[in-house]
Description:
The complex is a heterodimer.
Chain A: H1 2-8, E1 18-23, E2 28-32, H2 33-36, H3 40-47, E3 59-62, H4 70-86, H5 100-113
Parallel strand pairs in A: 1-3
Antiparallel strand pairs in A: 1-2
Helix pairs in contact in A: 4-5
Chain B: E1 7-8, E2 11-15, E3 33-35, E4 41-47, E5 50-55, H1 56-66, E6 95-98, E7 103-110, H2 114-117, E8 134-140, E9 144-149, E10 155-160, E11 166-171, E12 178-183, E13 187-192, E14 198-204, E15 210-215, E16 221-226, E17 230-235, E18 240-244, E19 252-257, E20 264-268, E21 272-277, E22 282-288, H3 296-299, E23 307-312, E24 318-323, E25 327-332, E26 338-343, E27 347-352, E28 358-363, E29 368-372, H4 380-389, H5 394-398, H6 404-410
Parallel strand pairs in B: 1-26
Antiparallel strand pairs in B: 2-29, 3-4, 4-5, 5-6, 7-8, 8-9, 9-10, 11-12, 12-13, 13-14, 15-16, 16-17, 17-18, 19-20, 20-21, 21-22, 23-24, 24-25, 25-26, 27-28, 28-29
Amino acid sequence: MDGEKKTYGGCEGPDALYVKLILSDGHEFIVKKERALTSGTIKAMLSGPGQFAEKEADEVHFREIPSHVPSKVYALCMYFMYKVRYTNSSTEIPEFPVAPEIALELLMAANFLDC
Amino acid sequence: MAAFPLIRSRTIGELLAPAAPFDKKCGRENWTVAFAPDGSYFAWSQGHRTVKLVPWSQCLQNFLLHGTKNVTNSSSLRLPRQNSDGGQKNKPREHIIDCGDIVWSLAFGSSVPEKQSRCVNIEWHRFRFGQDQLLLATGLNNGRIKIWDVYTGKLLLNLVDHTEVVRDLTFAPDGSLILVSASRDKTLRVWDLKDDGNMMKVLRGHQNWVYSCAFSPDSSILCSVGASKAVFLWNMDKYTMIRKLEGHHHDVVACDFSPDGALLATASYDTRVYIWDPHNGDILMEFGHLFPPPTPIFAGGANDRWVRSVSFSHDGLHVASLADDKMVRFWRIDEDYPVQVAPLSNGLCCAFSTDGSVLAAGTHDGSVYFWATPRQVPSLQHLCRMSVRRVMPTQEVQELPIPSKLLEFLSYRI
Lengths: 115, 414
């Protein structure tokens, strides 16, 4: 894990390129910071005043979100990439498909993350 | 009323009708414009009994080459092509079809179900040119409906049963080639084009002219609107009337479902566009074209602000309306003022392109004008909402064990 961090840039410090999202069962996801900031909630957690102790290490703990359905987290990350890619872009915006099986739970996650 | 910023829509291009020696004579009107479900063709009634069919991607390329210079990224020219397998020998051709009588309505029908044609990934497009059927139905002044093959321009079928003008035509989006026609003879007729145009059913219930009809995206419900404030919903499995939607004060002339089938937009001569929940008949939103809103008596008469056409965009967030005050308006379903406007005189009809990026509007003199639709990345919440609502009617949504704020969001009540 340490070797990986050294190669790709770290999660520490204000210039960190990546942030770590830690879900309730300990699973960690390392996501590019620019894309994670798509979520208003994550943005607030990362830049808010001292009450979020995570600020130092650019980690965000989600105590309510379990990771036992990895397809939802994958969909979230894909949406972040989609949004960053096509916002303020002159190219055609393609459709972003959401599978009906995960749509309802993904809606609740998206509502929580304000995105 | 607080002032709001009026953003002008970006014009993409225009297709002007050829000049005719008798300009002022009736018969020039362009009552319908239509895009093929797979985005390959665009058709409009040029007036004087002709319909012109143009390959849409070539048409768009021409606009981009001769028109605005804002296009910096060449990937925007990569539109769905039906011959992406390299079938250069079968390039789509332009056709001008003489229908023999004034054309009032047009509709494209495809044997490919719409979910497949409207692909998510453009490169994956598998439409095989010439093997799947693409038909154009034209509704005429004398009540006849002619069915043409789009690729060859040849007449395939002649459907004769209506006794008056066929004012609107629509195909079921599930690829079954079921055609519904709406007529001034107060009926709608259901035709099965896979069975040689056999007429399956007559839908009776309107007391006056039927102006327009539209299928829900899952092909289970048909909406028909007409004179005397009529808005009817029909069950298309049993061909029975589900309910009448009350609320308009004048003739209702256009209707369109949202892409997830959760919303129905209707346009009326009473200056309003209403957004309904088709599952329970509630009015969710009202888009007014006259301020202050007219009293019912004024709304029920000649008020210069008749709304002629309404169309839902494919992102399920925008609605375009066309009114007699010479303006095209783009609305968002979460705002009650238009987000973009464009000037248009004598507009009669409008339709979004298959990928939702362009709005086409037809005018009284047989011309068509095109604008870029306001596009932005939809929120993930809205994308999830559409995915849920495609399969769940409002009654089921109300039973879900989720917080009430999310319930309201899912029912489009926010």
